[in-house]
Amino acid sequence: MSILPDSYLTYARRHAGPDHDYYPASPIVDRAPLTLPRAALLGLWVVVPLEFFPLNPTGQPFKTPGAMQTPYPDLRHYTTRDYGNRVGAYRLLKLFGKLGLRATFAVQGAVAERYPGLVRDVLADGHNICAHGWDTDSLHHSGLSVDQENSFITRTLDALHSVSGTRPDGWISPARAEGFATPARLAANSIRWFADWAHDDLPTTFQTQEGILAALPLSNELDDWQILINYTRPEQEWAIQVRDAADWLLDEAKRLNSPRLLTLTLRPFVSGLPYRIKLIEEGLSGVLRRSDVSVVGPDDLLNLLSL
């Protein structure tokens, strides 16, 4: 006999499909075929976060992956992260130029404020940017007031606009953390797309109280931090996993007559290290050598949704 009250087993949001109203149940195999640029069967979307890690994070409501670990001042981890913006990012830019790959750089407001030259160099190389929140210690969560969260959003967009001359219309939250109200507040601030949720392999329409957002798929599992740092796997395995994912997705696209997306996150302080960059190049080159692959960006993915 249960000692729990009956109310414990009652959940008002329980119904067929997802337990929210952002998007309906929609198995990927039931959707109409899409058309990628150059009629490719596999689209490759590469995202590069440019992050600022405060030396004295509050860690509220949690410490973001990569945050300082040892007692203040944790200069070992701080300078390692700073190396990414000073050195690793430029190593990735050079690699992308060699491969002819255009990436999306997710830029935090604090980076635009502290490293405006880096943001300009990214744009000069033909890459696009999106907003990535203020810094890694300014996390979005349901404990924030409306004014606090809107301040994070507008401050970030203003900082990026001051450097780039354009107000970004895309967003990835720091640590991909959100509160219940975050999507609606992004939409209210003229954000067209975000990539915090990992619920699909294709773009989906995301309904909020403030209008429609495009939810762009960005894999957690092929994130360099996840594989190389969190799972502590060797770089060779990352390259193999990227190749295997490309093989599977291409085969799936051919069988179902509908393109697929391969999405990768590469952090400058992780993938931009000299002993990793060769394997990063091998993994990306192995995908790009395939005739049915096309590099895509947010605009291409928004076009799939006619947004």
From TrEMBL:
GO terms for biological process: carbohydrate metabolic process. InterPro entries: Glyco_hydro/deAcase_b/a-brl (IPR011330), NODB_dom (IPR002509). PROSITE patterns: NODB. One of its GO terms (molecular function) is hydrolase activity, acting on carbon-nitrogen (but not peptide) bonds. Residues 75-290 form the NodB homology domain. Pfam families: Polysacc_deac_1. Is involved in generating a small heat-stable compound (Nod), an acylated oligomer of N-acetylglucosamine, that stimulates mitosis in various plant protoplasts. Belongs to the polysaccharide deacetylase family. This is Chitooligosaccharide deacetylase. The lineage of its organism: Bacteria, Pseudomonadati, Pseudomonadota, Alphaproteobacteria, Rhodospirillales.
